[in-house]
Write the structure tokens for this entry.
Amino acid sequence: MAPVMFAALVVFLLLGYPVAFALAANGLLFALVGIELGLFQENFLQALPERIYGTMNNDVLLAIPFFTFMGLILERSGMAEDLLDTIGQLFGPVRGGLAYAVIFVGALLAATTGVVAASVISMGLISLPIMLRYGYDRRLASGVIAASGTLAQIIPPSLVLIVLADQLGRSVGDMYEGAFIPGLVLAGLYAGYVFIITMIAPSRAPGLPPEAQTLRDADGQTRRLSLLVITILSFAIAYAYMKLFTKVTAGSDFVVLTMSIAVGVSFVIALLNKLLGLKLLSRMAEQVVFVMVPPLALIFLVLGTIFIGVATPTEGGAMGAAGAILLAWGKKRMTFDLLRQAVESTAKLSSFVLFILVGARVFSLTFYGVNGHVWVEHLLVGLPGGATGFLIVVNVMVFLLAFFLDFFELAFIIVPLLGPAAEKLGIDLIWFGVILGVNMQTSFMHPPFGFALFFLRSVAPKNPYKDKVTGKMMEPVTTGQIYWGAVPFVVIQCIMVALVVLFPQMVMHYKASAIQLDQKAIDKQFDSIQIPGLGGPGGFDFNAPPSIGAPPKP
């Protein structure tokens, strides 16, 4: 019955029924069929209210509305606009500079917002017209923007990592820590692809002309060297402070605290330079510091507190939401209308996630009741090649399913079936979750149903338009150009999946920060415990033979 049930679910989804209702209806329908055929015990259905209540009572999933709200507030606060404008000026003269700026800002937005739609729409509205104005290839520009937006899928605080951790029964903090390096490596691969394009076909990604570089000093110089000097100085001061005045010597705690201090030092130097008119920093260096510090401070507030164990992901999300409100208020963009829109969008997304999860609970109850999980486990564990064969088959399957399902649907339907089989094969579930997270990222980029492509299509020019700066008539961006632009980045994402599989240490470093227990020391402490009256002189001897009913000694 289990294979028939799974096939029926696929048919329901292909017919276009809403996922949450298709899951729930499929579960209830096959429960009734199973009861009639004697394959399903009806008392299983008594557990259904408890399972749904358990979903509503899940503290981990509270992080989803917090991080969604934080991302929406930041998107509307103008932070993305300021970042793209400033970083675009910083990288501008270099060939492909605007593309590098989009990737850099995409990674930064991913680490602050965690919402793909916010990143893609912001960068599409701000960067795409500028890239088209200065002669970027439309396919390259579209692909870079869509792919950089999807970094929010794998760089913490990603919503899908929260869901994956919950479905695999693992810590969200560990999942975040494990995914951080793969996320940064993926951003580096995107930048490497742009570099190769600039070497092969420079005309596809030209640098900004001198007249477009507005962040100059009074004498017309940019003086980027002063930015390098303040960066090195800030990190040197932070490193020296950590070594001399703290006992933290290594691990994520050391990295997070060092970077937090360095950001604070650079901000103080830039502030003193501006207030006292010291002219130690160029205008560009000063602007970069002032624009970079707020999102970096938010990253350390949220991810830093989670990584060093001060806050849970839910608490970190709450602090991030409060920090986003303060940043928007500091930029004088915090209005009641903005707050209302963010709350409404957060409520819609949270309801969407919860309805799918409730539907998945109904489906899985029946599926487990007819021993579907045993069927799936035997099917996957018995694959040739052991753990390696399992990983290859699972990744190919998830990649193909991503053409039709988005990441929430994959996480709620497929992952609970794969987790037990992976654990039985001895695969670390955090590593497995990160592999699936990188793979599921392709669901945003797959033609024809990639959501990142839809988001970009909604803001890219559909008709010829007049450029506001140059006054020239510009050609529109076609849907075909967006789709073809996405293909190389889907290939890069597949390469990243292979790299995480081949080099598990990219993820497994999360174990280094875990608390290590010495079992021998624990046993020794238990052995040394003496309970009064239960051992020792005059106490009860546990090793003596039983003497129940024996006459008392004279």
